[in-house]
TrEMBL record:
GO terms for cellular component: periplasmic space. Keywords: Signal. Pfam families: NMT1_2. This is SsuA/THI5-like domain-containing protein. Residues 1-21 form the signal peptide. Belongs to the bacterial solute-binding protein SsuA/TauA family. The lineage of its organism: Bacteria, Bacillati, Bacillota, Bacilli, Bacillales.
Length: 330
């Protein structure tokens, strides 16, 4: 009888311990470097907060690297597995003869995310009003600057000849420079543009996103070697992103703001909602992860117009759409 009780106790112990030992392997950690922290990237934060990455067996370690050059350096030096940054950076790396090129595999935003902010109110703003003004632009060679110059040229303004163009201010310091009195106009991301408007430091007069058309503005990318060695994880990552993109498309700006607020603790929920609504209404959030040929060509046209296209790189060389297409067809 005693032996029987010992056997039962032992069996019960195994029943308790076995599920703990077989509840699944640890999630795969993916280190992501984002070029900045922005409401512009709302679908990424939705994917994190809604647990879409966890559903795919991934643990995402997100860090902000503040600037395209720093983000790409982090990726190339193996400080991150995936980078969220403008596609132009992958072209720059390829043109320098990289033996392990950076591949764009999932698009997050499909328009420029900046707004033209004037120091004074201009209810009847016309683009020609910029002529002979001091324009505080973005870092030379980056997507904001190139799109900005592209739009200005489309409006009949030569940035180098018709403006006093300032481009030597670090990305993170541009808002402070304008707030301290530098420039008549500035190109800003949200929520800074709306904050400045609320505080009377500036006034939004135009959107570069609505003027420039679809472009692969912010894209998830990884080194070719990493993608080849981690194909299953790249599919899982893209699937989680696509879930978030559909969620963002189907929910209101207020619902999205509630989800992503933890990433913007110093920003009022009402302001987050305003910014999300602005980006949604102008179609900035990509509805799916595919970076198509037309968007890639528009990117190259913008870079070429700014004199920043080092090489005419084909879409098939630096863009992988097979992963996204597979996910969307499931």
């Amino acid at each position: 009888m005693k032996k029987m009780r010992l056997f039962l106790y032992f069996s019960l112990a195994l029943m308790v311990l076995f599920p703990l030992a077989s509840c699944g392997k640890e999630p795969t950690n993916i280190r992501v470097a984002e070029v900045t922290r922005s409401i512009f990237y709302a679908p990424q934060y939705v994917a994190l907060e809604k647990g879409f990455f966890e559903e795919e067996g991934l643990s995402v370690d997100l860090k902000t690297t503040w600037g395209g050059d720093k983000t790409m350096t982090t990726l190339l030096s193996d400080g991150a597995d995936v980078a969220l940054v403008g596609s132009e950076t992958s072209i720059y790396v390829y043109a320098r003869g990289a033996s392990d090129p950076v591949i764009n595999f999932a698009q997050l935003t499909q328009t420029d995310g900046t707004f033209l902010v004037a120091r004074e109110e201009q209810p009847n703003f016309k683009w020609e009003d910029l002529k002979d003004s001091t324009f505080l632009g973005q870092r030379k060679g980056g997507m904001p600057q190139m799109v900005g110059e592209y739009v200005l040229k489309q409006k009949g303004i030569n940035p180098q000849n018709d403006l006093n163009l300032i481009q030597n201010v670090e990305f993170a310091n541009i808002p402070n420079a304008f707030a301290s009195g530098t420039g008549d106009y500035v190109q800003l991301f949200e929520p800074t543009a709306s904050i400045f408007e609320r505080e009377g430091k500036g006034h939004i007069v135009a959107s570069f996103g609505t003027e420039s058309g679809h472009v692969p503005y912010t894209v998830f990318m990884a080194k070719d070697s990493f993608m080849n060695e981690n194909k299953a994880d790249m599919e899982k990552f893209t699937r989680a992103l696509y879930k978030a993109q559909k969620w963002v498309e189907d929910h209101s700006a207020g619902e999205i703001a509630d989800i992503i607020q933890p990433y913007f603790e110093d920003t009022e929920i009402e302001l987050i909602e305003t910014v999300v609504d602005r980006y949604k209404s102008q179609g900035s959030y990509a509805l799916d992860p595919i970076l198509d040929q037309e968007e890639w060509n528009n990117l190259k046209n913008i870079m070429d117009a700014s004199g920043e296209l080092p090489e005419d790189v084909e879409h098939s060389t630096l863009v992988n759409t097979k992963i996204a297409e597979k996910i969307m067809n499931e």
